[in-house]
Amino acid sequence: MLQGMGTTTPARRTGRRTGDSGTRDAILDAALALFAERGYDGASIRAIASAAGVDPALIRHFFGDKDTLFATVVADRTAIPGIVGRAIGGDPATAGRAVTDAYLRLWEAPATRPVLLALVRSAVTSERAAQMLREILLTHTAQADPDRARRATLAGTHLLGVAVARHVVHLPPIADLTHDELVDEVAPTIQRYLTGTHR
């Protein structure tokens, strides 16, 4: 705010910003940060609006409600299903290591780590978040035969548990391993889940 100038500039304007796309992106960025930090229930529309520098009415204008905002954040700010899908679709002989490496790197990458944290922290209290987490874990098993779907689900839930222990709970034995060391430990089990073989 400027002082001593005869006019006063508000610290934050309400209503619509110039440029809807910039406003929408600011809301999505703020929402992602708060969902990752506080989970779905802890991130209020008012808090997100404040962080984005907009009036809460603008969030309703663009997204309607918090469920839709959360869904849009996940859809717009992540390429997770595609990354995991490419790893699963590779050479079956090395699928366990490829999937383990790709999935655990998602938790370390600045672009995807906040999305995963938001999903995991929110899934406990939000059915919408839980459904999205299920979709990420099961994206490439919907058309699979029952045995393959079961194997892929076991692999996905195992990797999710490892990631939560490392990045959310910070369990020392797992959190202290390097990425490659963790992949070495986990990949043979994921390989067995996916193909019934060890490698």
From TrEMBL:
**Which keywords does this chain's UniProt record carry?**
DNA-binding, Transcription, Transcription regulation
Q: Name the InterPro entries on file.
A: Homeodomain-like_sf, HTH-type_TetR-like_transc_reg, HTH_TetR, Tet_transcr_reg_TetR-rel_C_sf, TetR_C_16
Q: Where is the composition biased (Low complexity)?
A: 1-12
State the Pfam families in the record.
Answer: TetR_C_16, TetR_N
**Where exactly are the transmembrane stretches of this chain?**
none
Q: Which domain of life is it from?
A: Bacteria
Q: What is this protein called?
A: TetR family transcriptional regulator
A molecular function annotated in GO for this UniProt entry is: DNA-binding transcription factor activity
In this chain, the stretch annotated as Disordered covers: 1-22
Kindly list any coiled-coil regions of this protein: none
Cross-referenced PROSITE patterns, in alphabetical order? HTH_TETR_2
Q: Which organism is it from?
A: Cellulomonas biazotea
* Stretches assigned to the HTH tetR-type domain: 21-81
The residue ranges marked as DNA-binding region are 44-63
